[in-house]
Amino acid sequence: MTYDARQAIDLCMLTMVLGREAGNQTQPAIRGVAWSIRNRVQRPGWWGKDWAGVIEAKWQYSSIEGPQSDPNLRKYPNLNFEPWPTCLTIAEEVYAGLGVDPTDGAVSYFDKSLDNDPPAWAKDGSLVHCCDIDAFHFYKMA
Protein backbone atom coordinates (compact mmCIF):
# COMPACT_ATOMS: atom_id res chain seq x y z
CA MET A 1 0.00 0.00 0.00
CA THR A 2 1.04 3.58 -0.56
CA TYR A 3 0.37 6.23 2.07
CA ASP A 4 0.61 9.99 2.12
CA ALA A 5 2.49 11.62 5.02
CA ARG A 6 -0.58 11.95 7.26
CA GLN A 7 -1.62 8.35 6.68
CA ALA A 8 1.92 7.12 7.36
CA ILE A 9 1.98 8.96 10.68
CA ASP A 10 -1.46 7.59 11.60
CA LEU A 11 -0.37 4.07 10.75
CA CYS A 12 2.86 4.40 12.76
CA MET A 13 0.94 5.70 15.76
CA LEU A 14 -1.65 2.92 15.49
CA THR A 15 1.08 0.29 15.25
CA MET A 16 2.85 1.74 18.28
CA VAL A 17 -0.26 1.87 20.47
CA LEU A 18 -1.18 -1.69 19.46
CA GLY A 19 2.28 -2.96 20.34
CA ARG A 20 2.34 -1.13 23.63
CA GLU A 21 -1.24 -1.80 24.72
CA ALA A 22 -1.76 -5.32 23.39
CA GLY A 23 1.53 -6.63 22.02
CA ASN A 24 1.64 -9.36 24.63
CA GLN A 25 -1.83 -10.58 23.64
CA THR A 26 -3.18 -12.83 20.89
CA GLN A 27 -3.85 -11.58 17.37
CA PRO A 28 -7.63 -11.49 17.97
CA ALA A 29 -7.11 -9.28 21.04
CA ILE A 30 -4.73 -6.97 19.16
CA ARG A 31 -7.27 -6.74 16.35
CA GLY A 32 -10.01 -5.92 18.88
CA VAL A 33 -7.96 -3.04 20.29
CA ALA A 34 -7.31 -1.75 16.77
CA TRP A 35 -11.01 -1.82 15.93
CA SER A 36 -11.92 -0.03 19.16
CA ILE A 37 -9.57 2.77 18.11
CA ARG A 38 -11.00 2.82 14.58
CA ASN A 39 -14.51 2.98 16.03
CA ARG A 40 -13.52 6.09 17.98
CA VAL A 41 -12.11 7.68 14.83
CA GLN A 42 -15.35 6.87 13.01
CA ARG A 43 -17.35 8.48 15.85
CA PRO A 44 -15.46 11.70 16.60
CA GLY A 45 -16.09 13.01 20.06
CA TRP A 46 -14.43 14.03 23.30
CA TRP A 47 -11.82 11.33 22.70
CA GLY A 48 -10.58 12.89 19.45
CA LYS A 49 -11.54 13.54 15.88
CA ASP A 50 -8.85 11.68 13.94
CA TRP A 51 -6.34 8.87 14.46
CA ALA A 52 -3.70 11.03 16.16
CA GLY A 53 -6.27 12.80 18.31
CA VAL A 54 -7.81 9.53 19.48
CA ILE A 55 -4.49 7.85 20.19
CA GLU A 56 -3.02 10.86 22.01
CA ALA A 57 -6.16 11.76 24.00
CA LYS A 58 -5.42 12.43 27.65
CA TRP A 59 -6.04 9.52 30.02
CA GLN A 60 -6.98 7.11 27.23
CA TYR A 61 -3.93 5.00 26.40
CA SER A 62 -1.48 4.89 29.28
CA SER A 63 1.22 3.47 27.04
CA ILE A 64 1.15 6.69 25.00
CA GLU A 65 0.20 9.41 27.49
CA GLY A 66 1.63 8.13 30.76
CA PRO A 67 2.05 7.91 33.72
CA GLN A 68 5.81 7.96 33.39
CA SER A 69 5.96 4.80 35.52
CA ASP A 70 4.22 2.79 32.76
CA PRO A 71 6.92 0.47 31.34
CA ASN A 72 5.07 0.38 28.00
CA LEU A 73 6.09 4.01 27.37
CA ARG A 74 9.54 2.70 26.53
CA LYS A 75 8.50 0.07 23.99
CA TYR A 76 9.40 1.03 20.45
CA PRO A 77 8.84 -0.95 17.26
CA ASN A 78 11.53 -3.40 16.31
CA LEU A 79 10.52 -5.19 13.14
CA ASN A 80 12.92 -8.04 13.88
CA PHE A 81 11.06 -8.95 17.06
CA GLU A 82 7.48 -9.90 17.71
CA PRO A 83 4.93 -8.39 18.25
CA TRP A 84 5.70 -5.46 15.94
CA PRO A 85 5.29 -7.16 12.55
CA THR A 86 1.95 -8.58 13.70
CA CYS A 87 0.86 -5.18 15.04
CA LEU A 88 1.83 -3.49 11.78
CA THR A 89 -0.11 -6.02 9.70
CA ILE A 90 -3.20 -5.65 11.89
CA ALA A 91 -2.84 -1.85 11.92
CA GLU A 92 -2.73 -1.75 8.11
CA GLU A 93 -5.82 -3.96 7.80
CA VAL A 94 -7.89 -2.08 10.36
CA TYR A 95 -6.72 1.35 9.18
CA ALA A 96 -7.97 0.39 5.70
CA GLY A 97 -11.24 -0.91 7.16
CA LEU A 98 -10.61 -4.45 5.96
CA GLY A 99 -12.39 -7.30 7.66
CA VAL A 100 -15.18 -7.34 10.19
CA ASP A 101 -15.13 -5.56 13.53
CA PRO A 102 -14.85 -8.40 16.08
CA THR A 103 -15.90 -6.04 18.90
CA ASP A 104 -19.35 -5.13 17.59
CA GLY A 105 -18.60 -1.41 17.77
CA ALA A 106 -16.49 -1.17 20.93
CA VAL A 107 -14.88 2.17 21.71
CA SER A 108 -13.22 1.16 24.99
CA TYR A 109 -11.67 -1.87 26.61
CA PHE A 110 -9.86 -2.88 29.75
CA ASP A 111 -7.71 -5.78 30.81
CA LYS A 112 -9.39 -8.53 32.82
CA SER A 113 -6.66 -8.12 35.44
CA LEU A 114 -8.68 -5.04 36.53
CA ASP A 115 -11.86 -7.03 37.19
CA ASN A 116 -11.72 -6.36 40.93
CA ASP A 117 -11.38 -2.61 40.34
CA PRO A 118 -12.78 -1.83 36.86
CA PRO A 119 -12.69 1.67 35.36
CA ALA A 120 -15.54 3.96 36.39
CA TRP A 121 -16.86 4.11 32.81
CA ALA A 122 -17.36 0.34 32.88
CA LYS A 123 -19.79 0.75 35.80
CA ASP A 124 -21.55 4.09 35.21
CA GLY A 125 -23.83 2.97 32.36
CA SER A 126 -22.36 5.27 29.70
CA LEU A 127 -20.89 2.22 27.97
CA VAL A 128 -22.16 -1.35 27.76
CA HIS A 129 -20.15 -4.54 27.65
CA CYS A 130 -20.25 -5.97 24.14
CA CYS A 131 -17.69 -8.79 24.12
CA ASP A 132 -14.58 -10.33 25.58
CA ILE A 133 -11.58 -11.20 23.46
CA ASP A 134 -8.91 -13.08 25.33
CA ALA A 135 -7.58 -10.80 28.11
CA PHE A 136 -9.82 -7.82 27.30
CA HIS A 137 -13.38 -6.72 28.02
CA PHE A 138 -14.74 -4.47 25.25
CA TYR A 139 -17.43 -1.80 25.65
CA LYS A 140 -19.51 0.25 23.21
CA MET A 141 -21.69 3.32 23.57
CA ALA A 142 -24.90 2.65 25.52
Structure description:
The structure is a single chain. With 142 residues, the chain is α+β, with helices and mostly antiparallel strands. 39% of the residues lie in helices and 12% in strands. The protein has a domain at 5-100. It has five helices and three strands. The chain has a three-stranded antiparallel sheet with strand order 1-3-2, covered by helices on one side. A hairpin with a 2-residue loop joins strand 2 (127-133) and strand 3 (136-141). The longest helix has 18 residues, at 5-22. The model has no long low-confidence stretch (mean pLDDT 89).
Explain briefly what this protein structure is.
The chain has 142 residues and is of the alpha+beta class.
Topology readout:
Layout (H helix, E strand, L loop, with lengths): L4 H18 L4 H16 L8 H6 L5 H4 L18 H12 L12 E4 L15 E7 L2 E6 L1
Antiparallel strand pairs: 1-3, 2-3
Helix pairs in contact: 1-2, 1-5, 2-5
Strand content: 5-15%
Q: Percentage of helical residues?
A: 25-40%
What is the typical, i.e. mean, pLDDT?
A: 89
What would you report as the Rg, rounded to the nearest angstrom? 14 Å
Poorly predicted sequence stretches spanning 5 or more consecutive residues: none
Main beta sheet, described? 3 strands, antiparallel
Strand order of the largest sheet: 1-3-2
| Structural class by SSE content | alpha+beta
The succession of helices and strands, N to C, reads HHHHHEEE
Shape, per Cα inertia axes: globular
What oligomerization state is this entry in?
single chain
* Distance, first to last CA: 36 Å
Count of alpha and pi helical runs: 5
The counted number of beta strands is: 3
